[in-house]
Design brief:
The chain is mainly beta. It has a single domain, classed as Maltoporin, Chain A (Beta Barrel), CATH 2.40.170. It is built from two helices and 38 strands. The strands form six sheets. It has a 22-stranded antiparallel barrel. It has a five-stranded mixed sheet with strand order 3-9-10-7-8. It has a three-stranded antiparallel sheet with strand order 4-5-6, with no helix packed on it. The longest helix has 27 residues.
C-alpha cells in the first residue's frame, strides 16, 4: 500500500533538494573563472593513507573541522549524514550503542551477542556495545564504512565499521580549553594538552571532558501505594559523563613510532525511563484506576532505581616500524574492561510488575600484527589477529506478587538469569591490490577466522520477600538482593562451560575491480562476504528448548556492489553513487513467546531468517562559490525477510526487517567567510530526513517510529585570525519534533524512548 502522506513529504524534500541543486548549478557556472575547489579528504579505510575518491569502498569521512562545524557531539549523530545507517543509544540506556548499516546490526546488547557493526578506536576493536556511544572530542577523523569488513581488519564485521581516530600529537607544547553551556542546564568542560619531553622524540598528552545536562523530562518517584500519589521526581534523559585519555608517543628515529594510550569513561547518568506509547492494563492498588500516560513523552513513572553506572577503560600499545621504503610492520596490543549497572522498568509504572535490575561485566585482550607492502603496481596488507574475552552478566525479572498479594508488599516472583561467555578468536587476513593497467586495479582479499566459545547459562525461579521500588537491593542475590530473602522454586536452565562449547571456522573472500576512466572519475565493482559469529542464548530456557546448549550458528552476508566516484567541474563537485545487493542468510533471530505462569515468557535465538537487501546511496558535495558549499546524502533500501522458519513453517509474511528505513537523507548548506583580521566565520544548516522503521521483526508496536520525519539543525562557528579563539552556537531539532528511537512491547504494556527535543549549545574555546 502506498503511504500518500509519507510520499508527499518525500516528494517535497526531493523537490527542495532538486531546486537547491539547480541553484548551485547556475551559481557554479557564474563562478567559472575563479579558483574554487574542494579540499582533499584522506582516509585509511584500506590501512594506508589514500584520497577518499581513490578508495573503491562505500565510506563517509568526517574531519575534526567538519565535526566541529556541524556541532556533532556523539557518534549517534552521524546517522543524519551517512546514508542507510541508524546509530542509536539502546533503549533504556544512555551509552550502549545499537548500530545498523544497510539493515545489518544487532538489536540486543545482552552479553554474548556479537555486534553487527564494528567500532574501532585507533585500530582497537570494541567487542561490546556498552560505552560505545562515544562523545566526540580530541578527534582527528571519523570514518564510517558500509558493507562487510574483514580482509583488512582485525575483527570480521558483517554490516560495516565505525572508525574513530584520535588526534595525534603535533610535537609542540600546546593546550586547549573548551567550555559549553546550553539548554537543560548543559555544562561541558573539555581540557586537552600535550608537551614534548624530548624534542622531536618523546611527547606526552592528555585530554579530559566532563559533560553534564539536566533531563529532558522528569520521572515521578516516591509512590504511595495507599493514595496513588508521588512525593518526588528524578531527571529523565539527563547526562553525567566523565571521559579521560592519556597518551605517550615516542619516535626515536624516522622509521619507528610507538604509542602507549589509555582511556576511561564513567557514565553516571540516570537510567532512562520509557513513557507509555499505549495504555497499560496495570492499575493503582489504591483506587483501581489505570496508570495514565503523561502528555510529555520525556516524562515517566518507573518504579526501578534510576541510579545507573557504566564504566569502561583500557590501554593500548601501537608500534610501527618502516623496514624499507616499501615495507612497514605494525603491531597493536589492547586490553579493555567494562562494568555496567542498570535497572530497566518494562511496565513503566511504580509497580513491581516487570522490573529488571541487571549487571554486566566484560574484558578483552587483543593482538594484531600487520604487514604493509607497497611497490610499483602492487599494494599488500596482511595480518594476524588474536582476541580473547569474557562477557558476563546477571539480571532479575521481578514479576507480579504471588497468590494475589499486592504488587508492593515486598514479595514477588523472581526469574533470575545469568552466566558468561568465553571467546577465543584467531584469524589471518590477506589483501592485495594490483594495477593491471595504469587505470585498472584488481583487489582481492581472503580472511580465515576461527572462533571458539564456551558458556555457562543459568535460569532460576525464586520467590523473593524483599523487593521494593526505587531500591538498589531490588531482586535476588543474583544481582543486588540478599540471598537469604529468596526461596528457590525451580531451575529451568543450568548449563556448564563444558556442555555449551562450540567452535566455528569461516573463510571470507572479497574482490574489487576499479577503473579510473579519467583523472576525475572512477568506476568500481566489488563482492565481499562477512559473517557474525555464532553463540549461545543467555536467556535460553532448557525446560522449553532442550537444545540451548547447542547454541546458534554464524550468520552471513554476501554483498555485491557497484559504484562511481567522481570529482567534476574543476574539483568543485564531488559526486559518489553506489548500488548494492545483499544476501543475508542464517540470520540470528530472537523469538520470544508468552508462556503460562510462572514461566511467563521464553526466548530462543535461532538461525531462522533469510533476507534480501537492495539499495542505493548518493553522496554529493558542491563548492558553489569560494564561500558557499552544499552537501547531499541520500540512502534507499528495500530490505525484505524472504524466509523465517518458526515451528516448522515459513512465517515471513508477518515479519519485517527492523531498523531499516526505506529512505534516509540530508541536505546541508554551508557558508564560510574569511573576515581578514576579524577571523573566519562558518555557518551551516541541514535538513535530515528519515523514513518510518520497526523496532521488532515480528511485532507491530506503538513504540515504532511509524511516520517519516525531518529534523532541522543550524550552527555557527567563529575562529579568530590568530587561531586561538573559537566561539560556537548550535541549535538542533529546531522545530522540536517528537520522534521515537526505540521501545518495548511486552505483556505489561508498550513503552517508547524518544530522541532529543530542541536544544541549543553555546561554546567558547581557547587554544594556546
Amino acid at each position: 500500500m502506498i503511504n500518500i502522506k509519507a510520499d508527499k513529504k518525500r516528494f517535497a524534500m526531493l523537490l527542495a533538494v532538486s531546486s537547491a541543486t539547480g541553484l548551485c548549478h547556475n551559481l557554479a557556472w557564474a563562478q567559472q573563472g575563479t579558483a574554487v575547489a574542494l579540499e582533499e579528504v584522506l582516509v585509511t579505510a584500506q590501512k594506508r593513507e589514500q584520497n577518499l575518491q581513490e578508495v573503491p569502498v562505500s565510506i563517509t569521512a568526517f574531519t575534526a573541522t567538519e565535526l566541529a562545524d556541524k556541532g556533532i557531539s556523539t557518534i549517534t549523530e552521524l546517522e543524519k549524514s551517512v546514508p542507510n545507517t541508524q546509530f542509536r543509544a539502546s533503549r533504556a540506556t544512555n551509552s550502549t550503542l545499537t548500530a545498523y548499516i544497510r539493515g545489518v546490526g544487532q538489536q540486543d546488547p545482552l552479553w554474548g551477542f556479537e555486534p553487527g557493526v564494528g567500532v574501532y578506536v585507533d585500530d582497537v576493536y570494541y567487542a561490546r556495545p556498552q560505552a560505545a556511544v562515544m562523545d566526540v572530542f580530541d578527534v582527528e577523523r571519523i570514518e564510517v564504512l558500509r558493507g562487510p569488513q574483514g580482509t583488512l581488519y582485525g575483527k570480521n564485521t558483517v554490516g560495516g565499521a565505525i572508525k574513530y581516530i584520535t588526534r595525534k600529537m603535533s610535537g609542540e607544547a600546546e593546550g586547549k580549553i573548551s567550555l559549553a553551556a546550553g539548554a537543560y542546564d548543559q555544562q561541558d568542560v573539555n581540557i586537552s594538552a600535550q608537551l614534548p619531553v624530548i624534542d622531536n622524540e618523546l611527547y606526552i598528552g592528555a585530554a579530559i571532558a566532563r559533560m553534564q545536562r539536566d533531563g529532558f523530562g522528569d520521572v515521578d518517584t516516591g509512590y504511595d501505594i495507599n493514595t496513588g500519589t508521588y512525593s518526588a521526581t528524578e531527571d529523565n534523559y539527563n547526562k553525567d559523563v566523565l571521559v579521560a585519555r592519556v597518551s605517550i608517543e615516542y619516535s626515536p628515529t624516522d622509521e619507528l613510532f610507538i604509542r602507549l594510550a589509555g582511556d576511561r569513561t564513567d557514565d553516571n547518568s540516570n537510567q532512562p525511563c520509557g513513557s507509555q506509547s499505549s495504555p497499560t492494563a496495570l492499575t493503582h492498588p489504591a483506587n483501581g484506576q489505570t496508570f495514565a500516560a503523561s502528555n510529555n513523552p520525556y516524562d515517566g513513572a518507573c518504579g526501578t532505581s534510576h541510579i545507573s553506572n557504566v564504566e569502561n577503560n583500557g590501554y593500548s600499545l601501537t608500534a610501527q616500524y618502516q623496514v624499507t621504503d616499501s615495507t612497514t610492520v605494525k603491531y597493536v596490543f589492547a586490553k579493555r574492561e567494562g562494568e555496567t549497572q542498570q535497572f530497566i522498568d518494562f511496565d513503566g509504572t511504580p509497580l513491581d510488575s516487570f522490573d529488571v535490575p541487571a549487571k554486566y561485566t566484560d574484558d578483552q585482550t587483543s593482538h594484531e600484527l600487520q604487514l604493509n607492502f607497497n611497490i610499483d603496481r602492487m599494494a599488500i596488507v596482511a595480518g594476524l589477529y588474536y582476541f580473547t574475552g569474557n562477557s558476563a552478566g546477571a539480571f532479575d525479572v521481578v514479576l507480579n506478587g504471588l497468590g494475589g498479594t499486592p504488587y508492593m508488599d515486598g514479595e514477588h516472583y523472581d526469574l533470575a538469569i545469568g552466566g558468561d561467555v568465553d571467546t577465543e578468536s584467531s584469524s589471518a587476513y590477506f589483501n592485495i591490490s594490483y594495477d593491471i593497467l595504469d587505470d585498472l586495479t584488481l583487489t582481492g582479499g581472503m580472511r580465515l577466522t576461527k572462533d571458539d566459545k564456551n558458556s555457562n547459562i543459568k535460569r532460576y525461579a525464586y520467590n523473593t520477600t524483599d523487593s521494593y521500588p526505587y531500591s538498589q537491593s531490588q531482586g535476588t542475590g543474583f544481582t543486588f538482593g540478599d540471598p537469604s530473602n529468596d526461596t528457590l522454586l525451580a531451575i529451568a536452565t543450568d548449563i556448564s562451560d563444558s556442555e555449551a562449547d562450540k567452535d566455528w571456522s569461516e573463510l571470507s573472500p572479497s574482490i574489487k575491480l576499479d577503473w579510473r576512466m579519467s583523472d576525475d572519475i572512477m568506476l568500481y565493482i566489488s563482492y565481499a562476504e562477512g559473517f557474525k559469529s555464532g553463540g549461545f542464548d543467555m536467556r535460553g530456557n532448557a525446560a522449553t528448548n532442550p537444545n540451548v546448549a547447542q547454541g546458534y550458528d554464524p550468520e552471513t552476508v554476501e554483498t555485491l556492489e557497484a559504484g562511481i566516484k567522481s570529482q567534476l567541474w574543476n574539483d568543485r563537485l564531488r559526486l559518489n553513487f553506489t548500488v548494492f545487493n545483499m544476501d543475508y542468510t542464517d540470520m540470528q533471530l530472537t523469538v520470544q513467546t508468552a508462556q503460562p505462569a510462572p514461566v511467563f515468557f521464553s526466548s530462543d535465538v535461532v538461525n531462522a531468517g533469510t533476507a534480501e537487501i537492495q539499495g542505493a546511496e548518493l553522496e554529493a558535495l558542491f563548492q558553489v562559490t569560494s564561500d558557499i558549499s552544499t552537501s547531499l546524502s541520500v540512502g534507499h533500501m528495500n530490505a525484505e525477510l524472504t524466509e523465517v522458519i518458526s515451528g516448522g513453517a515459513d512465517v515471513s509474511a508477518s515479519w519485517e526487517m527492523l531498523n531499516a528505513p526505506d529512505w534516509t537523507g540530508q541536505f546541508a548548506i554551508n557558508y564560510q567567510r574569511d573576515l581578514g583580521k576579524a577571523g573566519n566565520l562558518a555557518l551551516n544548516t541541514a535538513a535530515s530526513y528519515r523514513d518510518a522503521s520497526r523496532n521488532f521483526n515480528n511485532v507491530i508496536c506503538s513504540c515504532d517510529q511509524d511516520e517519516s520525519y525531518t529534523l532541522l539543525d543550524a550552527g555557527a562557528n567563529w575562529y579568530s585570525a590568530d587561531e586561538h579563539w573559537t566561539v560556537g552556537l548550535h541549535i538542533k531539532n529546531i522545530e522540536d519534533k517528537e520522534y521515537k528511537t526505540g521501545g518495548y512491547n511486552l505483556g505489561s504494556g508498550e513503552l517508547a524512548f524518544y530522541g532529543a527535543p530542541r536544544t541549543w549549545t553555546a561554546s567558547v574555546a581557547y587554544a594556546f
